[in-house]
Specification:
This protein has about 180 residues and is of the alpha/beta class. The chain contains eight helices and eight strands, in the order βββαβαβαβααββααα. Strand 1 and strand 2 form a beta hairpin. It is globular. The two termini are about 25 Å apart.
Amino acid sequence: ALTVPEASGHRYRSVIVGRDRRSLPELADAGAVVVANSADSLSGWVSFLAATRDAGASRPWPREVIWSGAHIESLRHLQDGRADVACIDALSMVLIKRLYPEIVSGLHEIGHGPLVPSPPVIVPAATPIALVDSLRDAFTWAVADSTVAATCRELCIGGFVSLDHTEYATTLQLVDV
């Protein structure tokens, strides 16, 4: 579970950031350039497309898209004028604001992506269920350990929520945007 403003339990929303305060439909109509970390990113691209759909903007994004490779690089693209709008993972946004405030200085939060499950811990499909259960127990115990409480707070970790793959089924609907 994340302890960032855009999170609720084991779900979070990405933050849509722009160089100015225009809405997504206005940006699309103006030919704005979007930057995303990668085409297969739930937080950076899929959430952006879902938000544009929900805001009534054209789908797929009607203008240029730049792939940056990382959320922090997407923000750098906004800062130096190579792009106009980006969708940033909520946890990344909090940590970047804290560690590199100059990278977000002057940018504007103009929207949010849909509420999606927090990123999963992925194991090979052939992993025995007993090992999966042991890993879930270990993560739950680790983030509840009082000796790492300060570190968890710094990393915005409020706990571990054990989800099964069916929790992520709703995200498949977002891919069809």
